[in-house]
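Practice problem: Fibronectin type-III domain-containing protein
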Amino acid sequence: MKRLLTCMMVGLLLQACGKNDDAPPVPEGANLVFPLENSECNTGVSINENLSQVTFEWQASANTDSYTLNVVNLETNIPQTISTAATSASLSIEKGTPFSWSVNSQNANSDQTATSETWLFYNAGSHINYAPFPAQIIHPVSGSTVQKNLSNEVELDWSGSDVENDIESFEIFFSDQNPPVSVGTTDRATTEFAVAVNSSTVYYWRIITTDAEGNTSDSGVFDFRVL
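Answer key — structure tokens:
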């Protein structure tokens, strides 16, 4: 009888172990290669006066069997995407225009994905000098809900970059109405600004970046809610 019980217990253990399959591999984020970050992309095949074909390249990432390339026109915020099993893909994009790009890594056996860093670049055109890249919003994230500090303030954080590295200033627009109004200006080294807020209120903000040549770029309007 004891032998029978022992065999049954062993069988149950083996059956339970058989159900604990290894977790599917989680893909890792790819390292971007080209176009370079905050650069002017001079490598491309001209299609016509307005478009050129650019080949995007990245390094293979672990546990990955396919990639999705994401390219966004920063002037129109219109995205282009393409899926591939390779570590490069070509897209036709506008000349003389700022873009962001990133790569998502996927594995067919996992429902999780990984995203690379996001790089900015200008696709080469007839420009002699380029406007700054639109400021990239860091905090608060658009659509988020945040808590004010003890001074009844929220700190706005962003980042700025420019091909010629000649950013002069950032102008901050902020209001509980859309469009927001100008509330201050910072120099190129300052990418944060504290604003007074009220609870249970939605606020709107954007950043205008200006370079030494007087060229400007607009981040677009973002919003957040205060608890």
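Discussion: Residues 145 and 225 are 5 Å apart (CA to CA). Students who identified this feature from the tokens alone can consider the problem solved.
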